[in-house]
Amino acid sequence: xxxTYDYLFKLLLIGDSGVGxxxxxxxxxxxxxxxxxxxxxxxxxxxxxIDLDGKKVKLQIWDTAGQERFRTITTAYYRGSMGIMLVxxxxxxxxxENIKNWIRNxxxxxxxxxxxxxxxxxxxxxxxxxxxxxxxxxxxxxYQIKFIETSAKDSLNVESAFYTLARDIKAKMEKKxxxxxxxxxxxxxxxxxxxPQRKPTSxxxxxxxx
Amino acid sequence: xxxxxxxxxxxxxxxxGPAFRSIYxxxxxxxxxxxxxxxxxxxxxxxxxxxxxxxQGFIDSIRELLQVxxxxxxxxxxxxxxxxxxxxxxxxxxxxxxxxxxxxxxELNIAATIEKMELCLPLLTTYSxxxxxxxxxxxxxxxxxxxQLEHVLLPRVxxxxxxxxxxxxxxxxxxxIQDASMADLRDFLENIRKLSPQVGAMALKQTQDMLGxxxxxxVKNKKEGISARESTGPQCPHELVDFSPLHRCxxxxxxxxxxxxxxxxxxxxxxQQARLVLIPASVNLHDSIQGVxxxxxxVLGFFILEEHLLSAxxxxxxxxxxxxxxxxxxxxVASTLxxxxxxxxxxxxxxxxxxxxxxxxxxxxxxGLPTDPLPMxxxxxxxxxxEVLMQRWVVVFRDILDNASxxxxxxxNQDQYDEVMDTFPYDGxxxxxxxxxxxxxxxxSVPAVYVQVKEFIYAWxxxxxxxxxxxxxxxxxxxxxxxxLLSRSFTGCLSALFRRPLPLMQLVQIIVDTxxxxxxxxxxxxFISNITGSELVTTQTAGSMFQAARDDAEQQICDKLExxxxxxxxxxxxxxxxxxxxxxxxxxxxxxxxxxxGVLTSLEQLPERARVAAVRAATNRIATRLRNLLxxxxxxxxxxxxxxxxxxxxxQCEQFAAGEPVPGLKEGELxxxxxxxxxxxxxxxxxxxxSYLHDIGIDGGKYSLVTPRDAAMLLEKxxxxxxxxxxxxxxxxxxxxxxxxxxxxxKQLKQLQNQDGS
Lengths: 210, 758
Ligand SMILES: Nc1nc2c(ncn2[C@@H]2O[C@H](COP(=O)(O)OP(=O)(O)OP(=O)(O)O)[C@@H](O)[C@H]2O)c(=O)[nH]1
Ligand SMILES: [Mg+2]
Known about the structure:
With 210 residues, chain A is an alpha/beta fold. Chain A is built from seven helices and six strands.
């Protein structure tokens, strides 16, 4: 049976509650936007397949609850992620300041080589902006992470953010494979299995509760 | 002889015949003639002697005569003179006398004229009085005057030309008066048409005042009213109208002997007016209350005036006629209002109109006019009002639901806690003792909806107020409307909500929320009893009011979980030619199971039934999908390594199922979803063909759920894979045996399949 994809990437969205994680994911997966705010409870995911350099890449994107009370549940998902989007809200200073805490969370819980990206969301709300683009860029430079401003509402840079992250993961993975298998004779559908297993048990099986 | 004869002749004057005869016949002729001559000579001598004697006297007489003649002439002149003198003097006298005669005549004439004139004068003054009366539009006195003129004065005066003129004028005048009074009537009709809305308005106002009368307000009015009373305007609505023109007209026509004609005319006119009044002035009564007010005022005013005329009893209006016309009108009023109100979507306007109609009805009662079918109309409007309210509240509910987050209410402090407790009846005994932040089991939409239902009830009861219904009936109807609102409108909104994809947790919360709302309906009923002041009637519990919505939500939850399972299974990436299983479950399976157990735990607020349904749906989906994977015709070969890997994954799932992820399941019931897959896997991996073939057709056999077709299909795949992997290698003895067995079994299975015709 023909495989439906070449790569499966697990991505994670984190950031304070209300910054627009769910909205970004909703925009990316459904190309839609909802003005009302329904705070995420626990964790959820969406899947979207994209095309990268002729490869079908399946993105399983996990959307976490930003609220403090779900922290233990959501951190359990860091480990298996290959890419993490750190989202803040450009109209909310606090959410920007908290990015540092989120990065610390990643350092403590995610695998070391996880790809990261900072998103400054709601950039359509220019009038209410509290965090300048420069400060976002500066922070990104500081941590050596890619940065982009997005608007889930206006569908600005959402696609490109995910594509960029996916492309980086793909590049990193291919580099690793090249290193471990210089012949590079690969056929579709085997990449995932070739990926070295970091832990004997699945990253997910440890979390008993959402 | 001869002498004698002459004597004889002389003696006899006329009888001379015989004398002559005797002369003639005797002989003495000569003698006789001689005698005669002698005689003549004698007489001549005598004459001469006589003449001589008288001659002197004669001359003297002539002389005297001549003298007389001159005297006569003198006298004549004198007399002529006198005569001329007399003539002169008598001429002027005659003229005077004539003048005098004429003057006398004039004098007589004047006297006669004055006398006549005196007779005419009253006629003329009356006539001029008549004219001025007509001019002053005092038609009734004018008519009286006319009468007097015609029957008393005119005959008395006599046949003058001008009298004739007046006489001929009289019918014309009479006609003119009639016409003029008719014109007055028209003015009057025009006038009351303008005034009747005011009359109606005043009557309605009086009814309102009367209805709203309380001791306090009476006292207050008395105090204020004394000064106001003094400058009295009309006390009764009908006093706004001056009926005198009408009565005058009636009088006039009675005098003219046309009373009946007049009454007929009046009624016809009024009937026509009624028709106009019954067509609302503003085309759309449903636009504003003013239109309805104006309309009702006009109608009411119209009939109040007629009613007044009826009681005034001049015969213009009869009771039958009035009731007949009213009957026709009230039907029309009702139908007009019905048509117009049925288009209204504004409840406030409905209320105002209802109020207006109630007032109208009460006023009608005061004036003794029948009110049917207006109460019926109010009833119909009540239904429409409920409908309109529900439409309103659908919007409200939709708004609440659209903006609801469906997360449990969390309160930070006592104030917030009290706020929730104040708006929604919740037994917070347990929560009371907990530290802040406290979490309610329901979301903020529950109190919001609850408050709105109360608002609805308030709004709803506003309509039934003043309809004279007893508390119990109002309460029952209110209860019915409230539960209709919840079970129809709110449930409708919920269904609409489910049409868009909702996050799982929100669906769960909605189910929980509906339970709390249902639980609160009894409090709503209590609330209704309180405000209607009626006994609380415990009707059937509204237990399953939202069951349909809950079923929807549950179905959505199941669908959602199944979809998630599908998504995980779409990530499946089996290598069907795997040689060595990794010894670990596939990551999509472990991801899925941990995700599911996470989700199922978070469903703990769900009713058990719903959770069981959800977990059943999910496990069934997993089992079906895994089994389909195995039997997928697109997968041509399956190595035993791959089979082992899949078996391992299925075992993971079975463990999950056996672990009773939610309470309330029957022992091992979830595992049953995997039973057929398990039997198939056991059969193949255990190579237990003999017992399979032996047990076939027996109920409750070890592999009873495996059809020969499925078994054959899987076996075929296995065979394909083995052939592929051993193309170049030499088969060992046991491998050859196995292959042989495989072929035999396959053959047998095919036979079985053919037998079954499957
Ligand atoms: N104007 C604007 N509003 C946005 C944008 N993205 C999200 N929002 C709004 O921000 C609110 C929060 O969005 P969510 O996506 O639910 O926030 P979240 O990060 O998922 O929050 P949690 O689930 O609580 O962690 C919603 O009302 C969105 O409509 C954006 O790009 N522009
Ligand atoms: Mg969210």
